[in-house]
Write a structure and sequence with these properties.
oxidoreductase activity, acting on paired donors, with incorporation or reduction of molecular oxygen; globular; 4 strands; 10 helices; iron; heme binding; monooxygenase activity; Cytochrome p450; endoplasmic reticulum; two-stranded antiparallel sheet; 2 domains
C-alpha cells in the first residue's frame, strides 16, 4: 500500500476515516497553538515559522497548513509505532535467549549501582555505559527492522559498475534482506548481540546495517528511538 496507495481504493478494510480524524485533530491543535504566543514543542516551532517567514524561497517550497499536519503525523506515528514494535521484538528475542536477558539485567543493575540516587539521563544511557544493551537493540533491529523497505526517488541519472538508474526512479531498499546477508552476518537468523559490541561493530561494512536508512535523509528519530527503547 505504501508503494501503490491507489490500491487501497479496492480494499474495503482501508478507508480514509482514520486519516481524516487525525487530520481534523491536528487542524484543531494548530488553530489552538496559533492563539498561543509561547513555543513549547516542535509543532509550535512549525506553526510559528509558518506565520513568520514570508520569503519567496519559503513560498516556493509550498509550505502550508497541510505540510505542517503531514510533519506532525510523521512525528506522531514514527515516534510511537516503530519504537513499540522494536521493543516488542527485543522482548521476544530476550525471552528466547535467557543468557542475553541475564547479561542485560546485570548491565542495568551495574549502571543503577553507579548512579546511586542520581537521575537517569541521556549521558547515563550512552552506548559506552551500556554496550551490551545497545548491542541487543541493534541486533533486534537487524532481525526485525520496523520499516521493511525504506523508499527514495532518484534525483539524477546515476551509473555504477554497469548498473544505471534513471532520474525519477522509485527505489526501495530491502532492509530485511540486507540485514540477513550471510557474507556480513554469519548465521544471520540467530540472535547474536555480540555482533554489535564496540570491538566488533567497527569491523562491519559501512552500509551493512540498514534499519535506519543512510545519508542526510536517514531516520531523524534514530537517537530518540534508541533512548526510548
Amino acid at each position: 500500500m505504501i508503494s501503490f496507495p491507489f490500491l487501497s481504493r479496492f480494499a474495503p478494510a482501508f478507508n480514509d476515516a482514520p486519516t481524516k480524524l487525525i487530520e481534523s485533530t491536528f487542524r484543531q491543535i494548530i488553530s489552538s497553538r496559533k492563539k498561543q504566543q509561547n513555543s513549547k514543542d516542535f509543532l509550535d516551532v512549525l506553526v510559528d515559522l509558518w506565520g513568520r517567514v514570508n520569503t519567496k524561497e519559503f513560498k516556493d517550497l509550498g509550505i502550508s497548513e497541510t505540510t505542517i499536519i503531514a510533519q506532525a503525523i510523521n512525528f506522531f506515528l514514527g515516534g510511537y509505532e516503530t519504537s513499540s514494535t522494536t521493543l516488542s521484538h527485543l522482548l521476544l528475542a530476550l525471552a528466547d535467549n535467557p543468557a542475553c536477558q541475564e547479561k542485560m539485567h546485570g548491565e542495568i543493575m551495574s549502571v543503577l549501582k553507579r548512579q546511586g540516587n542520581a537521575e537517569i539521563n541521556h549521558d547515563t544511557i550512552h552506548e559506552s555505559n551500556i554496550p551490551f544493551i545497545q548491542a541487543c537493540i541493534y541486533e533486534s533491529l537487524r532481525l526485525a527492522p520496523p520499516l521493511l523497505r525504506p523508499e527514495r526517488i532518484c534525483t539524477k541519472d546515476w551509473s555504477h559498475k554497469g548498473y544505471s538508474i534513471r532520474k525519477g526512479t522509485h527505489i526501495m531498499l530491502a532492509s530485511w534482506a540486507a540485514n540477513r546477508n550471510p557474507e556480513v552476518y554469519p548465521d544471520p537468523e540467530a540472535f547474536k548481540p555480540e555482533r554489535f559490541l564496540p570491538e566488533n561493530k567497527k569491523t562491519l561494512e559501512a552500509f551493512a546495517f540498514s534499519s535506519f536508512g543512510f545519508g542526510p535523509r536517514n531516520c531523524i528519530g534514530m537517537r530518540f528511538a534508541y533512548e526510548n527503547v
